[in-house]
């Protein structure tokens, strides 16, 4: 009997220590928090190591800033917020484990993450099954929020981005003869291309030439020659930045200037400016954010981020910040402190003022928000316009 | 239309001669050791990285001629050493110790694959998985001319080396019978080292030219070009130097012609179909000679 009791208490002890000890410390140390109240426990699962480390770290920085700001103001509903970070090593299997840990062991009231659509899907399935609300900061694949009522996002989806690209090209720029270049074996690239194609045709544009390549391709000259010879007004190229570098250089050599190209948020990387900034002069792309976007909330975020991390925030950092801020806002409005109550509050979010624009959560739990058009000018990403009319692109 | 085809042909020739430079390395090693050196594509990649760092260090765009020539030579020297090292570490011990064993043709193949994975991962560790933009030393159209001219002259020089020099005679002797060559007083291990060095230097030359043309360098770049070069060597008749050149040009041209059609994604499918077709009709490859196996 004694052995059993001992064993049980030992088990109990080990189970309690990791989750109880640090949270009391944090509550005790935080001077701005009311000492008597337990902090909210929120879980964040991110790629803090592995292939997408950079993305994960930037997102975490955004979340950290949001936590700092909300606790400075006294927390949500007067309770401080504490975020438990877990590293999924950019790996699907690890994602499953870490999200389960956060939900069942740490009993978090809500989840933040992930940058990649594939891993957000895994986290989303777990979150939905355990009825814990989750907000992904930058998973753009449409399927992610279709998992169930507990999964939300603060970024736009790939289909909206493609449609907005078409709207910008045909309506804003008034270009009708359009060329297309994309990677046929990449979900992101071909997905944006097909959304763009449909929307552009509906708006009265004509696709005069369309070339697709496979991801391993490095020599684009023949594609570029074909496109140049068809004389399009603009070329839609929803391609990741690393393929865009050789394309931009080879296009310039073939006599197609950078300003002919319009892309998507896959271009948003410093590397593109360093390696092909000159060749891309004048090109446009649809994005979540631009460093010089004139919205007051974006500028406030920019200033706070720069103060804390000593550099300009990326899209991912701003989306990480928005995912956390929107959650904390919902926690403050929630009719209770259960995950279900928080879920309902997230679903009711209207006109939330974030760093990446005004966000309304639509009935399918996606963010109805503005899309920014960024132009490459003097080797810099600069704000050009906002396309906002999500309803107009729908049939 | 005619103009389009001509343009694609020119791009294909440049692309193909670059593939050919890499294919020469596969063919030379196979000719002598009957070994497919799968680590060759990684020597190519390492050469590209060394070229990148050397060109940047020398001055990049500000001194295009010195940086280009200097960077290429440094990359070739480094790749030559690396090729020799790969042979000494992964193949030579097996050649001397594995003699007479039943699987002595399979083991070097497996170590070749292992070496390839090792070098690729080493590159990721040293240089990270990041893509890096190559400094653009020459306008792209000139780069292509340089590629074609250097590939062609290298092939001529190689033909001269193999058929007119003492070293070439030794190489050919090894390719007939390594044991007999040793008994005749040829220092076989030295000839093998030189074969690896020459092949690797050509790969590095190809690598720098490839990157100048196609703008980027990254640790997994060897895979695509390595596969194509290997196929080129087989189509042309592995072990045959003009065959590697012919195979490379064919693959380059087939690839660019596919891009003109609506089925551009099928480029590799067509390349491999061509490979199968050639092997079905002529199992030794286009320029390969059938050898009689003596039992």
Describe this protein's structure.
The complex is a heterodimer of chains A (395) and B (295). Chain A has 395 residues and is of the alpha/beta class. In chain A, 45% of the residues lie in helices and 18% in strands. Chain A has helices spanning 2-29, 53-72, 92-105, 117-129, 158-172, 187-202, 221-229, 241-253, 270-276, 296-309, 315-333, 339-347; strands spanning 40-46, 81-87, 110-112, 134-136, 151-153, 177-183, 206-213, 234-236, 261-263, 284-287, 352-354, 357-361, 367-368, 371-377, 380-387. In chain A, the strands form 3 sheets. A 7-stranded mixed sheet of chain A has the order 7-6-8-9-10-14-15, sandwiched between helices. Chain A has a 5-stranded parallel sheet with strand order 2-1-3-4-5, with helices on both faces. In chain A, strands 11-12-13 form a 3-stranded antiparallel sheet, with helices on one face. In chain A, strand 11 (352-354) and strand 12 (357-361) form a beta hairpin. In chain A, helix 3 (92-105) runs parallel beside helix 4 (117-129) and helix 8 runs parallel beside helix 9 (270-276). The longest helix of chain A is centred in the first third of the chain and has 28 residues, at 2-29. Chain A is elongated, with a radius of gyration of 23 Å. The model of chain A is unreliable at 1-31 and 391-395 (pLDDT under 50). The model of chain B has no long low-confidence stretch (mean pLDDT 89). The termini of chain B are far apart. Chain B is mainly α. In chain B, strands 1-2 form a two-stranded antiparallel sheet. In chain B, helix 1 runs parallel beside helix 5. Chain B has helices at residues 2-33, 40-58, 64-97, 106-127, 140-164, 166-176, 178-183, 188-214, 221-236, 241-260, 267-281; strands at 132-133, 216-217. At the A-B interface, strand 7, helix 7, helix 8 and helix 9 of A face helix 1, strand 1, helix 9 and helix 10 of B.
């Amino acid at each position: 009997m004694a052995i059993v009791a001992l064993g049980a208490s030992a088990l109990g002890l080990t189970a309690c220590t990791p989750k109880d000890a640090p949270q009391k410390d944090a509550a005790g140390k935080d001077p701005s928090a009311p000492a008597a109240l337990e902090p909210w426990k929120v879980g964040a699962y991110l790629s803090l190591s592995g292939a997408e480390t950079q993305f994960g770290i930037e997102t975490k920085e955004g979340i950290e800033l949001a936590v700092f700001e909300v606790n400075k103001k006294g927390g949500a509903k007067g309770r401080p917020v504490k975020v438990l970070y877990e590293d999924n090593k950019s790996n699907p299997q690890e994602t499953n484990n870490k999200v389960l840990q956060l939900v069942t062991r740490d009993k978090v009231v809500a989840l933040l993450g992930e940058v990649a659509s594939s891993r957000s899907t895994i986290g989303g399935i777990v979150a939905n099954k355990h009825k814990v609300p989750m907000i992904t900061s930058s998973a753009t694949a449409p399927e992610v929020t279709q998992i169930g009522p507990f999964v939300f996002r603060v970024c736009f989806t790939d289909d909206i981005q493609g449609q907005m690209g078409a709207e910008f090209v045909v309506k804003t720029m008034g270009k009708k003869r359009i060329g297309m270049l994309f990677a046929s074996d990449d979900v992101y690239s071909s997905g944006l291309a097909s959304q763009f194609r449909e929307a552009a045709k509906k708006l009265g544009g004509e696709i005069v030439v369309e070339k697709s390549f496979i991801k391993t391709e490095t020599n684009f000259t023949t594609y570029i020659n074909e496109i140049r010879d068809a004389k399009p007004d603009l070329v839609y190229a929803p391609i990741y930045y690393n393929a865009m570098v050789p394309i931009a250089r080879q296009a310039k050599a073939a006599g197609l200037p950078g300003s002919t190209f319009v892309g998507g948020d896959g271009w948003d990387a410093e590397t593109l400016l360093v390696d092909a900034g000159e060749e891309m002069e004048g090109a446009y792309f649809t994005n979540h954010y631009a460093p010089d976007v004139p919205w007051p909330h974006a500028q406030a975020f920019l200033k706070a981020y720069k103060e804390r991390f000593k550099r300009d925030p990326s899209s991912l950092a701003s989306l990480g910040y928005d995912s956390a801020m929107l959650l904390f806002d919902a926690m403050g409005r929630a009719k209770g402190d259960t995950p279900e109550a928080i879920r309902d509050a997230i679903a009711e979010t209207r006109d939330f003022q974030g760093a990446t624009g005004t966000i309304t959560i639509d009935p399918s739990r996606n963010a109805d928000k503005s899309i920014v058009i960024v132009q490459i000018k003097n080797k810099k990403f600069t704000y050009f316009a906002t396309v906002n009319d999500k309803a107009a692109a729908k049939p | 239309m005619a103009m389009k085809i001509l343009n694609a042909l020119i791009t294909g020739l440049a692309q193909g001669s670059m593939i050919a430079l890499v294919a020469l390395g596969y063919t030379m090693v196979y000719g002598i050791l009957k070994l497919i050196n799968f680590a060759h594509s990684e020597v190519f990649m390492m050469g590209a990285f060394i070229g990148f760092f050397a060109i940047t260090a020398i001055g990049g765009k500000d001194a295009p001629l010195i940086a280009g020539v200097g960077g290429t030579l440094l990359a070739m020297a480094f790749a030559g050493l690396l090729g020799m090292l790969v042979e000494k570490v992964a193949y030579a011990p097996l050649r001397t110790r594995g003699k007479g064993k039943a699987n002595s043709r399979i083991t070097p193949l497996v170590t070749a694959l292992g070496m390839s994975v090792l070098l690729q991962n080493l590159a990721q560790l040293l240089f990270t998985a990041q893509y890096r933009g190559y400094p653009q030393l020459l306008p792209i159209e000139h780069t292509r001319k340089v590629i074609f001219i250097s590939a062609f002259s290298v092939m001529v020089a190689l033909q001269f080396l193999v058929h007119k020099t003492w070293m070439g005679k030794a190489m050919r002797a090894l390719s007939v019978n390594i044991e007999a060559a040793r008994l005749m007083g040829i220092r076989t291990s030295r000839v093998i080292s030189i074969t690896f060095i020459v092949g690797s230097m050509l790969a590095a030359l190809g690598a720098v030219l490839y990157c100048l043309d196609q703008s980027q360098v990254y640790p997994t770049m060897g895979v695509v070009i390595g596969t194509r070069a290997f196929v080129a060597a087989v189509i042309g008749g592995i072990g045959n130097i003009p065959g590697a050149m012919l195979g490379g040009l064919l693959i380059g041209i087939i690839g660019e012609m596919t891009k003109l059609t609506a089925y551009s994604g099928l480029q590799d499918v067509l390349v491999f179909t061509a490979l199968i077709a050639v092997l079905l009709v002529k199992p030794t490859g286009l320029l390969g000679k059938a050898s009689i196996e003596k039992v």
